[in-house]
Design a protein that fits this description.
binds zinc ion, mainly alpha, Four Helix Bundle (Hemerythrin (Met), subunit A), coiled coil
Length: about 140
């Protein structure tokens, strides 16, 4: 599971002169985000059930140890998915308030293609690149 969307959808084809982030575009991205969220929620439900089913399965301590690290991994994945769902909810709220699709940092249009690849993007590609450069410098 990654922050990249992997679900199939029909790319939005704007008509000539179509206004950016008009109601049709909002509806398009809202659908992508809601489908993605539903998919993540199903993943989380499945994880919970699997863990409950396996919880008492192994009596051997070695099996138990690997089972515990599996579970730790599952829990981390689940945590990531929950954070992603939170981010999706925030993004849907941005659509409702009309802020969606504009760079948080400089205010330019993020662009339909970039948003389809990363529907939760809040920065344009330039600000994102700058941001990553700064992060790398901090990490040194
Ligand atoms: Zn920007």
């Amino acid at each position: 599971m990654s922050a990249e969307i992997h679900k199939q959808f029909i790319p939005y084809e704007p008509k000539a002169g179509e206004e950016y982030m008009n109601p049709q575009q909002h509806a398009h991205f809202r659908k992508i985000l809601e489908d993605w969220k539903a998919e993540l929620s199903q993943d989380i439900d499945r994880t919970v059930h699997t863990m409950q089913d396996e919880a008492t399965l192994f009596a051997d301590p070695n099996d138990r140890a690997s089972q515990e690290s599996d579970m730790a991994l599952e829990l981390r994945n689940r945590d990531r998915e929950r954070k992603l769902i939170k981010k999706i909810d925030e993004t849907i709220a941005n659509i409702e308030s009309g802020d969606y699709g504009y760079c948080e940092s400089c205010g330019v249009e993020i662009g339909l293609k970039r948003l389809e690849a990363r529907p939760t993007a809040t920065l344009c590609i330039d600000c994102k690149t700058l941001d990553e450069l700064r992060e790398k410098q901090v990490a040194k």
